[in-house]
């Protein structure tokens, strides 16, 4: 069946090959580049950043090679409100957000998809490494590039209008295919880290927006070990950048254990104090019927992170999903996503609200 497809083209190799594959499959494809910055830089900084003028030009050149119409849509205001401001407010509240999940949820599969449907398109095509068939979202075959984790926030209705043409191919295969197709982005480096923080300095980015808020860094007993310029500049599990005046008595490194925005306090301690066996989540999104009772599955707690066997179930009388891990996980912070799997199939996702440490 021929579909009218809107191909989201970032200017990178993945989205270019995805658009080419959709067109080759016989669909009526139109390319669109989302301008997500109101002041795009002329050139990216190495492999960091995105949404630059260079990226939009690369996307247009790829569309010309493929032979499809191409447009640039200005979504900068929506991106700033739903992704950037959310990122800042989450850190200010002592949580650790994942802006890639928020971008997929609010921009690619809400703002972009809603506009596409309103214009008569049947589906949106992206360069994500994931597989989708009959409403079932599965991991991409390239384990190192799999992006099912950041897509797990999408609803079944959104996924019913999505195409992920790259899920059955490795990254190396995609680059080779791009070269065969004559796409000049075949060797273009991937963007990394947070796209709207091109220099990678997250703490500096937050400080510019939240200002200095000095407060204590303490150990588990409450003893003051040092001072920070803003609790928002830390995340659970962090080791570097603590700038403490004196080492631990046993000489071992310290890690961030807790961030309290109410008291503006950062608590640090030994690595083993980060061990977590139970996680309480909120706002679950299921890609099928919500399971009842307790059930066994696997959970992934960060993008490209480890997978843990677990048992999950709802709290009595509430919608908070409790996930009990078969072995401890470390560095689990509120605000991150817990994505549940059955093998390579995505069952759903939820936002981490609390993490119960073994030591507690």
TrEMBL record:
Entry-linked Pfam families: tRNA_Me_trans (PF03054), tRNA_Me_trans_C (PF20258), tRNA_Me_trans_M (PF20259)
Site (Interaction with tRNA): 128, 336
Location(s) in or outside the cell: Cytoplasm
Keyword terms of this UniProt record: ATP-binding, Cytoplasm, Disulfide bond, Nucleotide-binding, RNA-binding, Transferase, tRNA processing, tRNA-binding
Residues annotated to bind ATP: 8-15, 34, 127
Keyword Nucleotide-binding among UniProt keywords: yes
Entry EC no(s): 2.8.1.13
UniProt xrefs under InterPro entries: MnmA-like, MnmA-like_C, MnmA-like_central, MnmA-like_central_sf, Rossmann-like_a/b/a_fold
Top-level lineage group: Bacteria
Catalytic residue list: 103, 195
Function, as annotated: Catalyzes the 2-thiolation of uridine at the wobble position (U34) of tRNA, leading to the formation of s(2)U34.
Family matches, as HAMAP family: tRNA_thiouridyl_MnmA (MF_00144)
The protein's name in its UniProt record: tRNA-specific 2-thiouridylase MnmA
Species for this entry: Actinomadura parmotrematis
């Amino acid at each position: 069946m021929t579909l009218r497809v809107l191909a989201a083209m970032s200017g990178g190799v993945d989205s270019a090959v995805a658009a080419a594959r959709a067109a080759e499959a016989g669909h009526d494809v139109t390319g669109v580049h989302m301008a997500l910055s109101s002041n795009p830089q002329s050139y990216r900084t190495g492999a960091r950043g995105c949404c630059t003028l260079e990226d939009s030009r690369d996307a247009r050149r790829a569309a010309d090679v493929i032979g499809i119409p191409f447009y640039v849509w200005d979504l900068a205001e929506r991106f700033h409100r739903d992704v950037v401001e959310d990122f800042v407010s989450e850190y200010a509240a002592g949580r650790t957000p994942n802006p890639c999940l928020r971008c997929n949820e609010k921009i690619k599969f809400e703002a972009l998809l809603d506009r596409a449907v309103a214009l008569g398109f049947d589906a949106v095509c992206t360069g994500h490494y994931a597989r989708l068939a009959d409403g079932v979202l599965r991991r991409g075959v390239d384990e190192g590039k799999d992006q099912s984790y950041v897509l797990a926030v999408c609803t079944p209705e959104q996924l019913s209008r999505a195409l992920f043409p790259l899920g059955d191919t490795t990254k190396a295969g995609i680059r080779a295919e791009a070269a065969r197709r004559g796409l000049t982005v075949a060797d273009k480096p991937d963007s990394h880290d947070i796209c709207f923080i091109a220099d990678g300095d997250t703490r500096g980015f937050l400080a510019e927006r939240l200002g200095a808020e000095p407060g204590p860094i303490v150990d588990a007993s409450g003893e003051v070990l040092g001072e920070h310029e803003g609790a928002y500049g830390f995340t659970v599990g962090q080791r570097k950048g603590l700038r403490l005046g004196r080492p631990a008595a046993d000489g071992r490194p310290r890690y961030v254990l807790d961030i309290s925005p109410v008291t503006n306090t950062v608590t640090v301690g030994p690595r083993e104090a980060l061990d977590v066996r139970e996680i309480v989540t909120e706002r679950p999104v299921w890609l099928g019927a919500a399971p009842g009772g307790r059930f066994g599955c696997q959970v992934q707690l960060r993008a490209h992170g480890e997978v843990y066997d677990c048992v999950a179930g709802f709290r009595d009388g509430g919608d908070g999903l409790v996930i009990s891990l078969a072995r401890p996980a470390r560095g689990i912070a509120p605000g991150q996503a817990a994505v549940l799997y059955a093998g390579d199939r995505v069952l759903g996702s939820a936002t981490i609200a609390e993490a119960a440490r073994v030591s507690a």
